Amino acid sequence: MHGTVSISRNPWVVLARLVVIATWLPVAAALAVPMHNDSNGFEGIPWGAAFSESDTFMKVEDGGRVQTYEIKGMSPTLGPTSVDSMRFSTIDGGFARVTVRYSGKEAHDRILDFLQQRFGPLDRTPGQVAGGVVKVFDWQGADSEIILRYDVRTSQGIIFFESQVFRGRFNESSSPSAF
What we know:
The chain has one domain: Protein Transport Mog1p, Chain A, CATH 3.40.1000. Helices cover 22% and strands 35% of the residues. The chain has helices at residues 11-24, 28-31, 105-119, 167-172; strands at 33-34, 41-42, 45-46, 57-63, 66-71, 77-78, 81-82, 85-91, 94-103, 134-140, 144-151, 156-163.
């Protein structure tokens, strides 16, 4: 018959297909490791804190519910590493996320070492680290989550330090800063 698709009812074929599908589905939560030393914020600024322009921060984006700031007058660093940018975002007036962008394999290696020393080692068991050209690493705490994404082809990385409580609000938002 033209235009019909035959679906096997053989349980072994169905099981084999399910195994193949399950093997290829990304399961990010399974790759996350528990965060040690969850600080419920970023560098001493607690999640939910009121945030505004000041001597330290300047507003760089006004997205309605989402406001984004950068540190004034200094090149941003994460641990011992200089980074391309570091943006602090609020949603509905509460501090909720820091987005860090960086470039280069050396910077990536230093940042990954720093994050593991501070928040706990990654599970390097074969099958627990995402393969391919985009590497994703995730630390989950009770109050915070850190998601690092690194593109091997372009040597570009992005890290999200975010509040577990405010995360859902970003998903509701239409900000270009939303993950």
